[in-house]
Amino acid sequence: MDRELKKSDFDLKKSFKSLKDRQDIARMLEVNTNILDYYLDFGAANYKCFNFNKKNGKVRIICAPNSSVKILQKKLLYILELNAEIRRIDPVHGFKKDRSILTNAKTHFGCKETLNFDLKDFFPSINFGRVRGLFMSDYFGFNNTVATSLAKLCCYKNELPQGAPTSPFLSNMVAFQLDNLMMNFSRKNKVIYTRYADDITLSSKNETLSGHCFFSGDTWILSNEIQSIVQASGFEINQQKSRYRNNGGSISERLEVTNIVINEKLNVSWKYIKQIRAILNNWEKHGYKNAEIILTKKYKEVGKMHDARNSINLKRVVAGKLNFIKFVRGENDAVYRKYANQFLDLTKSKKDRYDFDIEEQFEKNTLIIQTGDGLKSHSTGFYISGVGIITASHVIKNTENIKYSLPENADFKDAVVVYQNEDKDFAILWPKKYQTDLMYSNLVEEKSLLKTPYIITKEIARKGAKFKACGYSNYITASGMTAKIAECTLTNLRPSGNSKTFLVQENMHKGDSGGPVFEFSTGHIAGMSIRGGFDPGGGAGEILPTSEIKKEIKAYRREVLIGLIDVCNKIKLYKK
Fold it and tell me: Structure pTM?
C-alpha cells in the first residue's frame, strides 16, 4: 500500500464529492477494495491500546491504529482538509495549521478576567453515530453506505480513538455547533470565546463573566445558559476543571489560558521555571542516573507515568521543557538561554552556547522605584526570588506612595514596605497585587545569595577591586528609563552604624541608591548601592555588601516567623 496519494488535489476533491459506495472510497484512497473491506469489517483487530495516567489520578486510554490503517486515515485526513471550508471568524485553535496554544492565549491577552472549563471525555463522547451523522449532514451530504464506511474507518469501539490521525479534525467538525452557539453567546455578552480541543476559554475586559459562574464548595459552577449550550451540542462540562480568575479586582490573580500566563505578557508559569531549574540542579549535583530516578519517582507520585514505562528519559523531559519556554518566550529570552546553556553543558554537547550578556540582563531586570511624580523621584531596586524587592531604606523614607516598574514597559505598580532597617539603609518591598513580571526578573535567587554570597573583604577593597553598579540616575534623562551601568572602584571599609559598608571611588550617581553592584566577569551580586555621588558627573558612593544583605534577610525571616507565632497564639486564646 502506497503511503502517499498520487492523484492531484483537484482530482481528489472531485472524487471525494462524488463518492457513492465502498468501491469509490477505495479508488479515492488508492487501495484495493478487498483490503479496505477487511480493515472496515475487522477494525477492532487493528488497534493497540495503552493506559496513560492523568494528573487527577484517573486513567486515559489511548488507542492507536496499526500502520496500514494509519496510512488510510492519513490519506482520508488529507482529503478532508482539502474540502474543509475556511471560517471567516474561527474560534478554534486546536489541531489547526498555524494555530497553537500560543495563538489561543494571544486572543485573550489584555483581558481582566477569564473563565476556563473543559469538556468531559471529549473524544469518547463523539461516538460512531455522531461521526456517521456528520458525514450524512448537509456539510458533506453522503449517503448511508459512504457515511457508514467512512465512520467505520475513523472509529474504534463506537468512539473516536485519541490516537487516530483523523480524530482531531473530526472532533472539530462535530463541535461546529458548539462553537457557533458559544460565539453567539460571546457576542451577546461582549466576551471573547476560544476552544483548544476540549479546553474552552471565555474572557472579558469589562468584568462581565462573574455573572456566569459561582463558587460552590471547591468548584466553580457555570451558569444555566452555558450548561444548556454545551448539553445541546452533545457534550458535558467537567465541573472539576472549571475555574474563574479575575485580574482587575482588589486581589490580582494569575490568568492562564492553555497553560500560558497572560497577565503582563505571554509567559510560562514561574512554577514551570522552578521545575526545570530543580531538574537541572539535581542533575548537576547528583549525576544523571540519580536525577533520573528522582524525577521518575516524582512523576509516579503525581500520575504522569503511563503503564508502558517504568522510568522517564531525563534528557527528553528537559529538552521538551526548554522547547516550551523557547516557544512561548522566544530564543533570545535570558531565562531560556540560561537553562539551555546549562543543559548543553550537562550533556557535553558540541553545539555552540548561547551568548549571555551580563550587562544586558542587569539593564533589563533592575527595577525603577518611584516615590513621587517626575524623574527626580526615581531610584533603583532589584528582585530576589523568595524574598522581594530590595532597595535602600532612605529611598522610601517618609512616603507611602511607592511604585516599581521594569524598564521595558515603565508600567508602574504599587508596592508596600514589609521590612526595613534604617541603620543599615536596607528595605524589602512587596507588590500590592500578584504580579508575574517580577518572578522572571530576579537577578539572584535567595538560596544562592544566602549560601554562597559574594563576600567583599578588606583585602579586596585595599587592592582597589573593580565592580559595576546598575541604577537609574536623576541626571541621566536623555535615555529615558534606561538603566546606567558604570564601573566603580572600591577604596576602603567604612563602619556605618552596626554594619560594615564599603566606599567606592567613582561613577556613583544620585538615583543609583538601591541598585545592584556586581562582579562583571561572573554577574555575581556583590552588594547594593546605598549612597550615590551628588555631583551630576558622578562621584564617590557607598555600598552595602552581600554579607550584610544576608543578615538582613535572616532578620526579616525572624520577624515574619515571630508574627506568625503571635497570630497563632491569638487564635488559640480566641478559641478558649
Answer: 0.74
